[in-house]
Specification:
Layout (H helix, E strand, L loop, with lengths): L26 E5 L3 H14 L6 E4 L3 H9 L4 H7 L22 H7 L5 E5 L8 E5 L15 E6 L8 H4 L9 E3 L5 H12 L4 E6 L21 H10 L4 E6 L12 E3 L7 H11 L4 E6 L7 H9 L7 E6 L4 E9 L3 H10 L5 H6 L4 E4 L12 H9 L1
Parallel strand pairs: 1-3, 1-4, 2-3, 4-5, 5-6, 7-8, 7-10, 8-9, 11-13
Antiparallel strand pairs: 10-12, 11-12
Helix pairs in contact: 2-3
Length: 385
């Protein structure tokens, strides 16, 4: 019997969505006090963390915003008529103003190169909040914005948390500090950033056609077993979990091992990296090719230990080519939209993305680890040695 439930048509693919708030995956709204005080706090924290984190601050054009509030319009109206998003990057001192309303889909990409976004919570929502207890401010009007408070700050005139807040918040899990405590906001943001660094998953690139080699490079035995299995085991030692990237027609060969099949077909390693991020866009991915027989867990651990999570990726520089090596690279979650953007421009070269993005490029402890084996002649030299 066919029911109406069984007839339901799934119009869209079920994709894992990245964890992003209104503007960024790591965003904090400062709320509860005057806009001037919020801006002062945000800029002081930005200045203190300059050189460590790239921070954006989001605010409204206050002259226009105040007019809209007096007229009783909502925040969307402020956004539409208030005229500006203020973007301040204290590292490069760049700024742009956008007049008119920006949809959520246009907002998020604007801040993907930042590590942290601070928001004036009096005007805009963020997925986490820093609440300032200020007796001069009407806290009741902000109650609906307090969805995930991580820190409470008492200003000079506040001696206790109002009863209204006590019934709203679970104070057992929220630290309460004085706004005048030295570096209180800076230390909190730095610690929260450290705890939010994404976990690392591993990916062995083994889905190529091996045209030049004339045989599957992933099945070559350098270390007593198939190279793709050897590399999977090396990744297991330095990542939270690891997978072998393969084509659909290779599934029967690897029944007993965790695999990810290519979803972006015909793009080689680029498609494999994108497929990994499609499966989990909230993790970093340590990607290694199966045609580099000198790579082992020690080398992978060296790369991970030199990771810079504020960059799009961390990789090795190859002095023989004078280029970064994209196929032994730790790609951060922020790389996913950047890789997709380059693809939309007609590029599918991971190295081009690294060269034209903010990445950490380090020197390999031994240049021989970067050696690729792609032809029978190269294989003979390696095996012969």
């Amino acid at each position: 019997m066919i029911t109406s439930e069984s007839k339901k048509h799934q119009k869209h693919a079920k994709l894992t969505k990245p964890t992003i708030g209104s503007f960024h995956r790591n965003e904090w709204a400062i709320i509860g006090t005057s806009c001037d005080q919020i801006k002062k706090m945000a800029f002081e924290a930005t200045e203190s963390l300059s050189g460590q984190l790239k921070i954006a601050y989001i605010d409204a054009d206050h002259k226009s915003a105040d007019t809209e509030i007096e007229e009783g319009r909502d925040q969307k109206s402020i956004l539409a008529h208030g005229g500006q998003f203020e973007f301040t990057d204290k590292i490069t001192f760049q700024r742009f103003d956008v007049e008119g309303q920006l949809s959520d889909y246009k907002l998020k990409p604007l801040f993907q190169d930042n590590d942290l976004v601070l928001v004036n919570g009096n005007h805009f929502q963020a997925n986490r909040q820093i609440l300032v207890i200020d007796p001069k401010n009407n806290l009741e009007k902000h109650l609906d914005k307090l969805t995930n408070v991580g820190l409470i700050l008492l200003n000079e005139e506040a001696s206790e948390i109002p009863e209204l807040m006590l019934s709203k918040l679970n104070l057992d899990s929220i630290p309460v500090k004085s706004v005048n405590e030295p570096n209180v906001l800076t230390d909190f943001l730095r610690e929260e950033w450290s705890e939010s660094i994404p976990k690392v998953k591993g990916l062995v690139l083994a889905g190529g056609q091996s045209t030049r080699m004339g045989r599957d490079k992933g099945k070559i035995n350098y270390h007593g077993k198939d190279q793709r299995i050897f590399m999977l085991e090396q990744l297991h030692g330095v990542t939270d979990s690891a997978y072998i990237s393969i084509r659909e027609d290779q599934l029967d060969e690897l029944d007993d091992h965790p695999v990810l099949t290519d979803k972006f077909i015909g793009l080689g390693p680029y498609g494999a990296i994108l497929s990994a991020f499609q499966s989990d866009p909230n993790s970093a991915w340590l990607v290694v090719a199966c045609d580099q027989p000198n790579i082992d867990a020690e080398i992978l651990s060296h790369l991970v230990s030199n990771r810079d999570a504020t960059k799009m990726a961390t990789c090795y520089h190859n002095p023989e080519t004078n280029f970064p090596e994209p196929l032994i690279t730790l790609w951060e979650p922020q790389a996913y939209p950047i890789l997709l953007h380059f693809l939309s421009l007609g590029f599918s070269c991971p190295r081009k993305v690294i060269i034209n993005s903010d990445c950490k490029i380090i020197q390999a402890p031994d240049v021989r680890i970067l050696k690729n084996v792609n032809t029978p002649e190269e294989l003979e030299k390696v095996v012969g040695n």
